[in-house]
Design a protein that fits this description.
Elements: E1 20-23, E2 28-31, E3 37-42, H1 53-71, E4 75-82, H2 87-95, H3 100-117, E5 125-128, H4 129-146, E6 149-152, E7 155-158, H5 174-183, E8 200-204, E9 220-222, H6 224-235, E10 240-246, H7 250-265, E11 271-277, E12 280-282, E13 285-286, H8 297-302, H9 307-315, E14 323-324, H10 327-344, E15 348-349, H11 353-364, H12 369-386, E16 390-391, H13 393-405
Parallel strand pairs: 3-4, 3-10, 4-5, 10-11, 12-14
Antiparallel strand pairs: 1-2, 6-7, 7-8, 8-9, 12-13, 15-16
Helix pairs in contact: 4-6, 6-7, 9-10, 10-12, 11-12, 11-13
This protein binds 5'-O-(N-(L-cysteinyl)-sulfamoyl)adenosine (5CA) and zinc ion.
Length: about 400
């Protein structure tokens, strides 16, 4: 699949700091030490509805990770998937009497537009589940041949007991895992499984549903976790730097993915850090396509909201916090954008050298965007109060805000 166009990232004077970030597996901050090419996999959308503020907030967090790395003069190798075949997509297409392929293509196209408008950097590899199937089938066969997977009425399940490290990503106990598995696409109640937590790797073809040639597995379609594993191993390999997504992906998705990959390769870990963004809510409940309590990026854009203000709304919250979308959040962001634009519109102003370092420091410290915004606010207030004589300082601020926060002033 093609991704979306990249907005330019201006190079800043000096050099950024190494990123310290919260890793779900260790439960604390880790300082990442990627090589010259940092590797990141971020779970993509299931394209059955438009991009909402929750998605945008999560992708914004991982965009900041990349901007911090780019500022350390590293290259970034970024991979993202599109879950373009899965139960919720097929159910929505059925409900609305739409062709599932058209639904997925239309929503993916809209996602690309939203990402472009928000200046979120594109992945180098943007891969759909469907196009990944030829790579998924041999992995499932290999797991089965190793004894780490078994068949149940034509479907193939992964045996969680085959991975000695199972449970280390989420750190949850079995009772919590069972509850979340039922909520998030698993089937712990299905009779005949070796362990209720075992996730599906390959689902045998069902009447009226799309299916693909699975060689010795028979016709069917892939399970959810193996999709991301196949794509990540193909394009990044084991031990990449960051596996990212919202906190609802820690279990089962990232737990199971890590186990699949670790058993397949005999290596550990799948990712050096598992990074999870908080959940954005609306009217007291997590924004979700299944609940329908959504604020869409595309709707705000159509209504004339500046995408830079949408982005500032996201940046005003720490990525790990759960927060609530309200009209006030957007109003504050519009107002802040106006202040910043006025402040950089003059040829000179207060020195910006300290500000660039403050933004760098804040972001390197577990992506503390609110602290970075507060630093820019202070510079803009000084500019407003008594200006300054540093020629070119507004240009430096403008480039720093663009390069490190993705906001075009
Ligand atoms: N296709 C899978 C990942 S392989 C999937 O979870 N798709 S999704 O469309 O449901 O979600 C896409 C990303 O947005 C995931 O990282 C998910 O954790 C995140 N996300 C979904 N809802 C919210 C929300 N309300 N707040 C923050 N992030 C969210
Ligand atoms: Zn995923």
């Amino acid at each position: 699949m093609h991704a979306w166009p990249a907005s330019e990232v201006p190079a800043l004077p000096g050099k950024g700091r190494d990123l310290r970030i919260h890793d779900t597996a260790t439960g604390g901050l880790v300082t990442l030490d990627p090589g010259p090419v940092a590797r990141i996999y971020v779970c993509g959308i299931t394209p059955y509805d438009a991009t909402h503020m929750g998605h945008a907030a999560t992708y914004n967090a991982f965009d900041l990770v990349q901007r911090v790395w780019l500022d350390t003069k590293r290259q970034v190798h970024y991979v993202q998937n599109v879950t373009d075949v899965d139960d919720p997509l097929l159910e929505r297409a059925n409900r609305d009497g739409k062709d599932w392929v058209e639904l997925a293509e239309g929503e993916t196209a809209l996602f690309r537009e939203d990402m472009t408008a928000l200046r979120l950097l594109p992945p180098q590899h943007y891969i759909g589940a469907v196009e990944a199937i030829p790579g998924i089938v041999p992995l499932v066969e290999r797991l089965r041949d190793m004894g780490a997977a078994y068949e149940l009425e034509g479907d193939v399940y992964f045996s969680v007991e085959s991975d000695a490290h199972f449970g280390e990503v989420s750190g949850l106990d079995r009772a919590a895992m069972k509850l979340l598995s039922a909520e998030r696409g698993g089937d712990p109640e299905r009779p005949g499984k070796k362990d209720p937590l075992d996730p599906m790797l390959w689902m045998a073809a069902r009447e009226g549903e799309p299916s693909w040639d699975g060689a010795s597995l028979g016709r069917g379609r892939p399970g959810w976790h193996i999709e991301c594993v196949a794509i990540a191993l193909d394009h990044l390999g084991m031990g990449f730097d960051v596996q990212g997504g919202g906190s609802d992906l820690a279990f089962p998705h990232h737990e199971m993915g890590a186990s699949h990959a670790q058993v397949l390769t005999g290596e550990h870990p799948f990712a050096k850090a598992y990074v999870h963004a908080g959940m954005v809510a609306l009217d007291g409940a997590k924004m979700s396509k299944s609940k329908g309590n959504l604020v869409f990026v595309s709707k705000l854009r159509r209504d004339g909201t500046d995408p830079a203000a949408i982005r500032l709304s996201l940046l005003a919250h720490h990525y790990r916090a759960d927060w609530e979308w309200t009209d006030d959040v957007l109003r504050d962001a519009v107002e802040r954008l106006g202040r910043w634009r006025a402040a950089v519109s003059r040829p000179d102003g207060p020195s910006a050298d300290a500000l660039v370092e403050e933004i760098r420091e804040a972001l390197a410290n577990d992506l503390d965007a609110p602290t970075a915004l507060a630093a820019v606010d202070r510079w803009a207030a000084r500019q407003d109060a008594d200006g300054g004589t540093d020629e070119g300082a507004p240009g430096v601020v403008s480039r720093a805000v663009d390069a490190l926060l993705g906001v075009a002033l």
